[in-house]
Amino acid sequence: AERLARSASASDGGAGAGANGGSDVAVDADILDFLGELEVKLQLKADDLDASVEEVARAAHERLPLARQELGTLQEKAGALRKQILQMVEGIGKTQSTVGYTLGNIQVMDRVQSNMRRARDALGEAAGMAQLLATVEQTFKQGDLTTIGRQLKQIREGLESVSGVPEFAGVETKLHEFEERLQQMVQAPLQKAFEDHDAKSVQHLSSILVLSNKNDTIGTLFVSAKISKLQSSWETFSPMQGLGVGKNASAGDDATPKVVSFEGWLPEWLRSVLAVVEAEHKWCLEVLPGEADALFMTLIETCFISIKQSFKNRLQNTLSAAKLAHDAGDSPVSPLQVLVAVKTCLKDFLGSVITMLGRSGAREQGRGKLLECLALCTYGQIKDQVLLYPLLERQEISGSYNKLSGDLQLRTTKLKQAAHSSSGSVADSIEACTSAIHGLIGPLCKVGEAAAQRCLKITDGFKVDELLAVVDECLVAVMSKVSFSLKVIQDCAKEAAVKASAAGQDADAAYKQDGLPEDILVAILRVLQVAALFSASIGGLEEALGASVASLGSKSWELQSDIGVWFTLFPGQREEHVGKLAGFAGSPLLPSSQRSVKDFAEAAEGLVLDFMMIKVRESLLGLKESKLWCRAEGKDTTFDLPSFSVFPSKHVTSLGEYLLVVPQQFEVLDDLEEVGSRLQSEEEQRGEGSEQSSFAAEWISKIVEEAAKLYTRDILKIPRLNETGCSQLQADIDYLCNILQALFVTVPPALSTVASNLSLSNEEIKDPEKRNKDCDNAAWDRMVKMRGAAEKGAAKE
Description:
mainly alpha, two-stranded antiparallel sheet, 25 helices, 2 strands, flat
């Protein structure tokens, strides 16, 4: 390597000296010598490796016979070992069979020992039982109740042990006889102890009944001792009582008896019951703490069960009497008010009992059963009336609405009679009828809101879906009467308009502004206010009902809640109620009433529009047949006189003067502030701006726009329009547009199109480029046709 390096360096160093050829020959010789030595060394190393490999192969070949011999030996040993394993498995199987047989014998021996042990115990129990049976009769004679109870408990516990012994086959019957005898011996003193509040005797005698497995008897005796006081207080009710309601009046009390209603007497009785049971519950918590809640609820349940039929009879009689008196006008109390009072009493009683149980620390599981029992025995008293609540509510609402609408029906009848009278009498009758409709609105909504409150108080929202259907149905019935009155107003207004028109023609005053009587106009305009107020009020009623329905969705429906009690009394109603509440979301609660109110509002608007357009039609009468549009203007050729401006026609001036009077006529619409306040509140709820036009201004715009449309319709029916007619029509339209501008009303597109057309000559209107892109095409084409017809007529002449 060193020589190669030196030769390489020498070659690099002498690259410039090409003439030094001897040095290159010497370097090549050194490389050849080195390569030769290296080849010899490699050959020697290869020989050594060949010899080693050959030696290793020979040694391995020599070991192969020995390896085959060892492999055979191993195979023989493996076969012998396999035989041994099979023998061992076979031995294990035999051993397992032997062990199983042995275990079976051991189990048999264990059963024998157990049977012998039980037999020994049974013999002992039998001996003890025989001894107990022999001595219990003697103990009964001695009257030792505690010992009797303990012995009967031992007999009951040992009864299972001797159940298969024939000699003791009648022990169970005898035990039952003994327990009955013991109960009869304990019953009288325990009930006396409960009546006297003898705590020690109650604890002692109750423990004896517990020993004899007669726990239920404790509750029965407790109720027997206390129920008579509650029942006697219930029987003290009488519609005719003295000043001491629910109590016996003293012998010297000469107070005048007064009529006491059942719903007025019931709260006092429930308070007395609550006072009694609360005192007994506190006493039981000290004497029998483990049985206090059960005894407390048993007493209440027994009390309400014992008076159940009497309670229903009294309530039904009270409701019937209240209905008769209310319908006759003798009493302001309706049947539903009676039911609300009764339900409120029961609710207060139920809440007090629940609070009392909560203070006693009753276990949650047992408390649920107690509350279910309490719900059944309290709210169950009015279960039938709750089922009939929708019917009662329909009678209540219908009766109220009929009374409210009675004045309206009377006013409507008088309006029919006044239809053939003077205009002043008709106006007064229309005003009275409209005022009657207006007077209905507030009370109608109050009746609906009161019905919702009654539903929450009586059914806790359980019947809210049926209430909404009843309110909707009753409102529709009232709206039918209101719509009928509106129809009568409309007929009378038309007849009055015909009379006024005939009177105006007879007096040759077709274009005077007195037109229809002012008092009738004011009465008609009042209908708009009533319609707007009706729509706003029904919307407010629906919002109030929606709030009541929404409040039900946030309530807890567990048994402790009021509505949860009804789910307990009416199983399977929870899911249906949830589905109904979900169906109310996003849908109108009073759909039929909304449609009726909408129809009424549309009819009222149509009435006003038709009435206000009577004068407009009178002003436009003969407009399209007028000779102004095709008049041939003769020019004096003697003198060259200038042409003067054209004045508006009598048709448009009469119309304009009438439109200028309209705002004064509509000032009556701003008299009732409640309409504006209702509309403003609705607009604020919708988030609209604060700058709102008045209700009257909106209707002035409607009237003026409708009049402009009628005018445009009539001028487009002109058969021919020459140049003179165009000038006249241009003057008329300019005048009317100024009127519209003064009244802050936008010119209708069709009228603007007519004005644009009139500003062009006959040749220019034929040019499509002169037509405005935003014009009313139908009006433009009609104007072209009208002017073309006039041009053709002039050419023929």
